[in-house]
Amino acid sequence: MQQETPTTQLTVKTLLNLVQHFVGFVYRRVRLVGPPRALTIEVQVEPHAQSRPRCCRCQEPCPGYDMLDERRWTSVPLWGIATEYVYRPRRVECRVHGVVVEHIPWSEGKRPITRAMMGFLARWARRLSWRETARVFGTSWETVYRSVEWCVEWGLSHRTLAGVTAIGVDEIHWGKGQCGANFLTVIYQIDAHCRRLLWVGQKRTQASLRRGLAALGPTVVQGLRFVCSDMWKPYLRVIAQQAGQALHILDRFHIVMHLNQALDQVRRAESARLLGAASAQYLKKMRWKLLRRGSRVRGRARWQLRALVVSKLATGRAWVLKETFQHFWKYKSPVWAKAFLHCWCTRAMRSQLEPMKKVARMLRRHEPLLLNWFRAKGELSSGAVEGLNNKVRVVTRRSYGFRTYRAMEVALYHNLGRLPEPECAHEFC
After folding, report:
1. Quick one: 73 exposed, middle or buried, by C-beta within 10 A (0-12, 13-18, 19+)?
2. Rounded to two decimals, what is the model's pTM?
3. Angle at which helices 252-273 and 314-324 pack, to 10 degrees?
4. Side-chain half-sphere of 323: how many Cα atoms within 13 Å?
5. Which of 145, 199, 341, 393 makes the best surface tag, with the fewest CB within 10 Å?
6. Phi, psi angle pair for 213, to nearest 5°
7. Are the C-beta atoms of 83 and 40 separated by less than 8 Å?
8. Pairing mode of beta strands 81-87, 40-47
9. Distance separating the N- and C-terminal Cα atoms of the chain
10. CB 121 within 8 A of CB 137
């Protein structure tokens, strides 16, 4: 089936010229081809009579050499109908690069889809899974992946890092197992005006973080005012060496996490010790109630916590220590915060609870970095790193089928990098 009318041809060609006009090329013919249930809009493209072909490498005008066979490129669907560009590329004789294929403005190398189509698929891939995007638009998962990858590479090469003054460093578990190879090292920008993923790399090592800081460039690293991280020694060492001028702040979330882990260790040990005893009732089904902030506990759970504290069990004492430490973050002066920290650590060391004593020793070792949190208060969000980590986990859960690190890296940059996109005449979604 072939349908072609002057009215339809004129209308579609006019729209194409409005949306995608390529200098040196003209839309010669537009027609519908294929069966009624699988129509395709075929757009015949020809070079302008007055134009000269350009070298694909240097894009300088060159004399023509010969013509290649007809090629087809899948473009953005029009009214839900598949669209294809049809064109016979020319070869040119460049004085610098020899005989090469001409520069085709809608094409990227030998890819069978147009740049506009790659941008179209990449935008939809933020809202749908890559598999679902491929199914909806009648293409393959590989095509969607390559489209997103091209947009990410374009965005990374055109992004600017000016204005980056605060970064957060953390690691995210990815894949199966708990070994270091299954972690990603991530660097975020956590300035108030911009929060985005700056760099992601494999493994949780000093070398990974060094590569990340090197990727940012010495100008950005030396201009940092704040660096937020956890208490992992290799990270602390690298940050002190390469970004020593920045105010290094320990992430509040990780400190709370250590307190919760210590509390849970006390609970598990005591539950095992009191197995079958009458006092074991105070610990039954209490794990999540204990780990939750006390101010957020309501109803019957609140009375259960009070009964646990009154029972004078070790778990109750550990919970009181955990909740008491929350007052630390309410101070405005580092001097008073330091005094509170000393008092709390003394109480923890006298509690005879080894997990809580371990946390106290850790806080004492990192006291200067911990107090930096108050020196930066008001200029740095305490939850910025963990908020971005949660978004990373959403991407990883949605991308459970990824088998390669490269695919995961592309997905993270695509969703969290806030990368610039190639210019297009129409916002598709």
Report:
1. buried
2. 0.86
3. 170
4. 18
5. 393
6. -65, -35
7. yes
8. parallel
9. 32
10. yes
CB atoms closer than 10 angstroms to residue 270: 20
Q: Are 73 and 107 in contact (CB under 8 A)?
A: yes
* Predicted local confidence at residue 306, as pLDDT: 85
Q: Nearest CA to 349 among 336, 335, 363? A: 363
* Alpha-carbon gap, residue 116 to 331, rounded angstroms: 53
Range list of β-strands (E), 174-298: 183-191, 194-202, 226-229, 247-250
pLDDT at 182: 78
Radius of gyration of the chain (CA): 30
Q: How many CA atoms lie within 13 A of 217 on its CB side?
A: 8
Written as six digits, the tokens of 27 are 């839309």
pLDDT score, position 2: 54
Amino acid at site 379: E
Structure tokens at 358: 């371990």
- Give the β-pairing of 166-173 and 226-229: parallel
Question: β-strands 64-67, 40-47: how paired?
Answer: unpaired
215 token code pair: 């990727």
Read off the DSSP letter of residue 417: S
Backbone CA torsion sign across 328, 334, 339, 344:
positive
